[in-house]
């Protein structure tokens, strides 16, 4: 049977073939175009991960530390560093491991204890730091600096809380970027000491920004003149950062890291067995240890 171009079936077959080819190439070119557009716009595919804003915690009974923390907050904002001023009472310490930079301004009270707004925060840190299974990498992404407010007349417990914070955060892997600064209300120069220390915080943040250790939008280049907006103090800031002390003693870190004691209701509510219910034991708020929590979430 001979095929003639003029025959109806042949024309129909050619037309069908042409249509199918056109549809195929149209589809292919659209896919190619959309792929190209995506590759030209990498942000839509790989959004830049959001680094959490820094946190300034004020731990204060009568407001002194809170006032100082507020002034540091203004100074950091003025220098382009994004920080939140936080009352630890309102903070979930379980989120600490997500923080990139934490500043604590804390006073010390009777018997070297912290003010009441830090009760849970301190208990959480103590439990976590004392539990060898939590490990020393829990806060390894968190850099921190501490300013203590106390009175020298209390002798051994002078600024005990600030020093204790430093020890516990370091034990959990936090990286202390400045030595604890111990302000003494009895000396009459607390504001001045705090002002100098604040400048060193700005300097440290500027240096970290350059090294990619902190993703604020700091405008300084690490020099004190540029980083600090007021004052004429020429004290050098200390930008030596302590290396993360990676001590061993970690048991099943994957299960436990980032899971210190929690006050999140959902977690506490899961503990039943007649012991814990609604996050309380005999009417008191329950502390869930990392170990209990890890086994709950398995
Ligand atoms: C009852 C009492 C106990 C104190 N105990 C200590 C202490 O043990 N160690 C210390 O360094 N300062 C101690 N202080 C001093 C406070 O830390 C100081 O007054 C500080 O300015 C309070 O800051 P705040 O208002 O931020 O809480 C104590 C003060 C009072 C009134």
UniProtKB/TrEMBL annotation:
InterPro entries: Flavdoxin-like (IPR001094), Flavodoxin/NO_synth (IPR008254), Flavoprotein-like_sf (IPR029039), tRNA_wybutosine-synthase (IPR034556). Residues 54-202 form the Flavodoxin-like domain. Residues 214-271 are annotated as: Disordered. It comes from the Eukaryota. Residues 222-255 have a biased composition (Acidic residues). Keywords: Membrane, Transmembrane, Transmembrane helix. The chain crosses the membrane at residues 12-29. This is Flavodoxin-like domain-containing protein. It comes from Solanum stoloniferum.
